[in-house]
Design goal:
By secondary structure, the protein is α+β, with helices and mostly antiparallel strands. It contains two helices and seven strands; from the N terminus they run E-E-E-H-E-E-H-E-E.
Length: about 110
């Protein structure tokens, strides 16, 4: 399989991958804003945007904090009953922490619109 071409077909995700192949990881817990802030304060994290019809988009390095502050925080849904039209741009995220063996926390952001 060519993982560089593989797209997300359904949410919630059951696996993660990048262009090089599968990432051996699994979801650990759903996250709210305060928990994401705690992970950011503790050290490095990677965000992964999961949108149906697209490849996972990886946000890492120096862009992580700005991405959190400007994009995710105003659109983070903390309930399963949120309506995307209530958020800027009429879309929102739900967040889940995933862990890969020995790696930094992955914060998977599933997009709903």
């Amino acid at each position: 399989m060519d993982y560089a071409l593989k797209k997300i077909t359904e949410l919630p995700l059951t696996e993660l991958w990048n262009d090089d192949g599968p990432i051996i990881s699994e979801p650990q817990r759903e996250l709210v804003a305060s928990e994401i802030k705690e992970l950011l304060r503790a050290g490095t994290v990677q965000f992964v945007i999961a949108r149906c019809g697209e490849k996972p988009q990886w946000i890492e390095g120096k862009d992580t904090f700005d991405f959190w502050k400007n994009e995710v925080q105003p659109r983070l849904s903390e309930t399963n009953e949120a309506q995307p039209e209530e958020f800027p741009g009429e879309y929102c995220y739900s967040a889940t922490e995933w862990r890969a063996l020995g790696d930094i926390p992955l914060i998977v952001l599933e997009v709903f619109h």
